[in-house]
Amino acid sequence: MGARQIVLGGGGLLLILVVFWSAVWPYVVGGVLLSGLAAAGWWLWRADRRVRARDRRWRQEESVKAGRRALADVDAMTGTEFEELVAALCRRDGCTEVRRVGGSHDNGADVLGRLPDGRTMVIQCKRYAPSSTIASRELRDLLGAKVHFQADVAVFVTTTRFSRPSERFAVEHGILAVHRDHLGLWNNGTSLLSLSRVNGRGQGDARHRTRWKQAYGK
After folding, report:
1. 3 state DSSP class of 215
2. Long-range contacts of 110-115 (CB under 8 A, 24+ apart)
């Protein structure tokens, strides 16, 4: 099609619009408005995608930063900050309805929520000095909290280690005992459910315990 034909065709279309303007103007205006709305909707959609992408990147970066947090930083936290960290790690792993309930009247629970598979959980958090040891009585308190909250799973998270009797108690009663070494793994990306497969293990042999005493003084 030549340039002359295009010009003639365009001129003919313009002439028709002028002649029949009173009949076609609502359609022309409607078409322009629809095009404008479509363009605005497309722009808003693109803007929303950009905002969501930036938010995802920010959340991923924050998750990486949290995962790289050294246990020395965790040792410097307050008890409340440690509970918030544990709750954040649960959310990272896909747990739902996670909330911190620690306080003077917490009924033995610091964090409540649901595992990704839907089971309810109750968590007790103890930010003790690494030289301390978790005694069996503290695990018994957690069992009471499990009954009180009618939870399916009980988890004990600490910045130190469990005594041998308390470790056995945890395994015998189905408590997931997350000691300092496992907390380090969890903090650096290992999922909570993965730790359940090594429950009751990982506190090391005699040489590991010797290094522990040299590092932490007990």
Report:
1. helix
2. 110/83, 110/86, 111/83, 111/86, 111/87, 112/149, 112/151, 113/87, 115/152, 115/153, 115/192, 115/193
Interval 119-133: pLDDT, tens: 999 999 999 988 889
Q: Which two tokens stand for residue 87?
A: 């709750």
Question: If we measure between CA atoms, which residue out of 112, 163, 169, 161 comes closest to residue 139?
Answer: 169
pTM: 0.65
pLDDT at 112: 96
Pairing verdict, β 120-126 and 96-100:
unpaired
Residue-wise pLDDT tens digits, 164-216:
899 999 999 999 999 998 998 899 889 999 988 888 776 655 565 566 566 65
For 124, the 3-state DSSP assignment is: strand
Number of H helices, E strands in the chain: 9, 7
C-alpha–C-alpha distance, residues 41 and 93, integer Å? 35
The sign of the torsion formed by the CA atoms of 204, 206, 212, 217 equals: positive
Evaluate if residue 19 carries a pLDDT over 90.
no
Please answer whether residues 160 and 47 qualify as being in contact, where contact means their C-beta atoms are separated by less than 8 angstroms. no
CA atoms of 163 and 214, how far apart (whole Å): 17
